[in-house]
Amino acid sequence: MELGSDTKAVVLAAGLIFLWALLLGVWKYRQMATSEDSLAHPYVDTAHRAALLYSFATLLLAAFVELGGFSTAVNLAAAFIPIFFFVAAIVGYCVHGWRRDTDNQFRDPVPGTHPFMWALIAGEVGGILVLLAGFIDGQLL
Q1: Phi, psi (5° rounding) for residue 35?
Q2: What value does the CA radius of gyration of the chain take, rounded to a whole number of Å?
Q3: For the chain, does the N or the C end have fewer beta carbons within 10 angstroms?
Q4: 65, 67, 64, 86: which is closest to 18 by C-alpha?
Q5: How far apart are CA 27 and CA 123, in angstroms?
């Protein structure tokens, strides 16, 4: 079976995010091994878990891309908008974990936090709606 180029790109993104999650697990382990309470910083833990979950969510996007009835360009845009926000969220968690500046980024949010969250919501939900519509078009209609 030959995968479409759009599917290959999304599966590659899933693999890279999964590799990142594994490396974040090493960082988390090191913090756990060297801290007095045997815990990693909450945002290191969150980055690790989020990257694991987002890698599998990205594989789900790849399935919708491959089985959808929309063009390669539409599929790529619809998949990579959520992937962008997945990666941006992980980066944000890593920054907080590295800086150890908070255990809750919404307690004292930096300017732009809430507009970013609204864009994230629109991008992730919108992207999956397009991919789901493409799946319905390609497989059910």
Answers
A1: -90, 155
A2: 17
A3: N
A4: 86
A5: 29
Quote the distance between the C-alpha of residue 29 and its chain's center: 21
Q: How far apart are CA 6 and CA 83, in angstroms?
A: 13
Query: What distance in Å separates the CA atoms of residue 119 and residue 44, rounded to the nearest whole number?
Result: 24
The CA-CA-CA angle for residues 60, 62, 68, to 5°, reads: 105
The residue assigned the tokens 């968690």 is 93
Report if pTM > 0.85.
Answer: yes
Instruction: For residues 91 and 106, give the distance between their C-alpha atoms in angstroms, rounded to a whole number.
Output: 16
Q: Where are the domains of the chain?
A: 5-140
Q: Which residue has the tokens 């970013």?
A: 116
5-140: CATH number:
1.20.120
Amino acid found at 104: N
